[in-house]
Amino acid sequence: MRLRRGVAIAVVAGGGAVITMLIGLVTNAVSEQARWPGLLGWVQEHAWFSFVMLGVALVGMTALLAALSEPRRPVQSTEPPRPEDESGPPGAALVLRALPRDTAAFTNRAAELASLVRSVRVAQESGDALPVHVIDGMPGVGKTAFAVRAGHVMADQFPDGQLFVNLNGHTAGRSPVQAGEALASLLAATGVPTGQIPVGDDAGAVTEARAALWRTRLAGKKALLILDNAASYRQLEPLLPGGSGCLVLVTSRKRLAAHEEVVLPVEALPLDHAVDLFVRLSGRPADALGQDAVEEIVGLCGHLPLGVSLLAARLRHHPSWSAEDLRERLVAARDRLGELRAGERAVAATFELSYLDLEPERQRFFRGLGFYPGTDLDAYVGAALASVSMAEARRQLDALYDAHMIDEHPGSRYRLHDLLRDYARGLADEGGSNMEHAQAVQRVCAYYLAALAVANRHILRRGAVVPAAPDSASSVETPPMESRTDALGWLENERANVLACIRRANSLALYEPVIRLAAAMAPFLRQAGPWDQAVGLHRTAAEAARHTGDRRALADALAELGVVRRFMAAYPEAIEALNEAVAQYDAVGERRGKADALNQAGIVWYLTADNDASARAQTEALALYREVDDRLGQANALADLGMVRRQTSRFDAAVHAQSEALSIYRELGDRYGEANSLRDLGVVHYLMGEYEAAARRHREAFDIYAELDDRAHQAYALNELGVVRRLTGDLVGAREAHDQALEYFTELGERFGRANSVRYLGALERASGNATEAVRLMEEALSAYRDLGSRSGEAASLGELGAARGMVGEREGAVEAFRRGLDILRELGDRCGEAEVLNHWATLLRTSGDPDAAREHFGRALALARDIRCPLEEARALEGIGRCDWITGRPAARAGSSLRDAVVVYRRLGVRAAAEELERLLASQAG
Fold this sequence. Notes:
Layout: H1 2-31, H2 38-45, H3 47-68, H4 110-126, E1 133-136, H5 143-153, E2 162-166, H6 179-189, H7 203-218, E3 224-228, H8 233-236, E4 247-252, E5 262-265, H9 271-282, H10 286-289, H11 291-300, H12 305-316, H13 323-332, H14 336-339, E6 341-342, E7 345-346, H15 347-356, H16 360-369, E8 376-377, H17 379-386, H18 390-402, E9 407-409, E10 413-415, H19 418-431, H20 434-459, H21 484-507, H22 511-528, H23 531-548, H24 551-567, H25 571-588, H26 591-607, H27 611-627, H28 631-647, H29 651-668, H30 671-687, H31 691-708, H32 711-727, H33 731-748, H34 751-767, H35 771-788, H36 791-807, H37 811-828, H38 831-847, H39 851-868, H40 871-888, H41 892-909, H42 912-926
Parallel strand pairs: 1-4, 1-5, 2-3, 3-4
Antiparallel strand pairs: 6-7, 8-10, 9-10
Helix pairs in contact: 1-2, 1-3, 6-7, 9-11, 9-12, 11-13, 16-19, 17-18, 17-20, 20-21, 20-22, 21-22, 22-23, 22-24, 23-24, 24-25, 24-26, 25-26, 26-27, 26-28, 27-28, 28-29, 28-30, 29-30, 30-31, 30-32, 31-32, 32-33, 32-34, 33-34, 34-35, 34-36, 35-36, 36-37, 36-38, 37-38, 38-39, 38-40, 39-40, 40-41, ...
């Protein structure tokens, strides 16, 4: 072929020279201005002969060129050409191994590989055509490495060839490969002669013809094709083989929609796999790197394989660096993405390619996400952030999700990967001003205030003041919340985001949104916690109020801080905050706020057993509530005053105050307050020996708390119900209740409630005869109460601890516990508790061989119990006196009388086990 072309060129060149000469001769012959020598002169003289020679030369040249030239094939139709077993030159055999080298940066992905292999095996075994498998994921996650590894793993299943095509969907400086170009490369790679690859001016027709030829080439074959870095399904669709035995793996940063595809999402690496990859690529022993440093390093690059490999390469190329040096650089770096590079490779570059593929309006929306302080968002937040409609925000978020710039989460929520968030923030900082940043945060805060106003209407108690929504709330779209459950679900989803917005607003000196958001979040955080989070929030709000000089806002923040500190059993800090709140409310003449703060301070004094201070605070609060006609406040003060009366064994006064509170709560429809009063009435009932009524009240309270989804108070009700069950002999039911309460308190971090559960479980172990375990639990509870500063809890634990120590023979330790417990109880004015400890001490004396001293202690307990109408301790004292009389040989009638009186009380209380034991004793003595 090359020889023929060379001859043609030579002949054309020589012919051109002859023609040129002839033209000159003819010209001269006509002009007669010069004479040519020799034969050429004769030709010049006969001009017409020169014209004939010129014509012959031209015709000859034309014929020669036609003979030497190859005919050009016309554009082939879109019909497939004849197979190679018909006429025409045969193509090369399709056995090609064109996969890239398997990379050392690949790690594990066992679950994803197993899923792919299983999908292929199922299709092959069923005889179905192999579906297209699309491997998608965010930039830098390792899609190509996974596809190549999968190709090598399954190469033996596709013996007719394995091909790899980079479609350049997201390649710097390169346009995406057109389908026609890719088909030409594939056809050439599989042995189709260049002359047989369709060409022409109609690009669409050419692509269709090449696709038809490609499908024909792969018909009946088992080949594997990796189409890497696809930009769209339209780009790759013509490249798909027609046969059922070929496997196609597609990688893309975008989510490609097709009916027959199987999507294999590739996500960031788990921690242990990321650590393993870093260690391998760093070229250093794991022991020399330090586990903690490596874990933080891979965490800082979001566990992305690209980021991990780049950081490992940096460490490998800096022998003098330690892993800790690299970690410190990353932590200190303001530009984390800038540190994730090695040579010319960088994580930021991969993100930029995807970003530049977005439409301008989508780029603007994505940049705006860089201003968002939270971790995830929905279309409502997106609309507020970008100042667009909900429909537009949803459209933009869906498009960014399709482009793998954001991830989708349950509940129609979206989240940016940590590094993509850094990238978005960098774009926002480059393209926006501080004013734009502040305005974006203000818009999001305004949205959250509007949504919180809706949520609080469902979760606040009836009669409570709902924090006002901003003036712009009417123009803000908020999620539908039709019930308390809806509101709590929304709050749980948005809690971290709202708190993040508050922190960001505070850093931008946007103090007004900080104050308002903190107040709006307070009702939810009161009941849901975590309370350490709430403490930080209210401290921030207090500082913001000091910046603005708003004393009323400062008082509100301090009051909420005191409430949360009470929940955490940090009683001194609670009193300090509440006292300052009272002073600030006084300064601005805010009576209702002052009453609220006094009410909360009274509760703290009740918990620390400062009963006089508590009663004074509640009485003053009640008077203020009546002045401002606050019915809910009145009910709260009455209920808390009732608790003080109960703690000082003034049971009738306690029932009166608590019943009045219960009536107001029901009048207001305040289910939460109703449950609290029912629970405390239950406590009074069991102290008065009315166990059936007590159990009923506690069950009613628990059901309301469950309805309100208030686990902390559910746990308190469970503990009280467990006590009643223990006293009536249902030890299994008691253990179940206390165990559940302990679990709730532990999860919530409620230390006081947890200490109660431990104490009650200790009492249960003692009642079950497990004295050693009872001692351990009581010592744990005692330590917790002392840490909390709870004097009443300490006293109760000491009484039970003394009883348990007596059972294991620790007489001196028991007596010491009894003495210390009695001192505290007398200081607190808890006469019912005093009678209980006297009975425990008397029992120890009786079983230790000192019935006279025992009878004296039982007598004192009996007098106290009858004075305050505490029937259980009365029955125990009567039983003890009767047993002491039997031992000391006093008249049988006298001993029997005390025991029979005890049986009557036990029977009335429903304490059958104790009654039946005494009846057996009386029967044996009578026999």
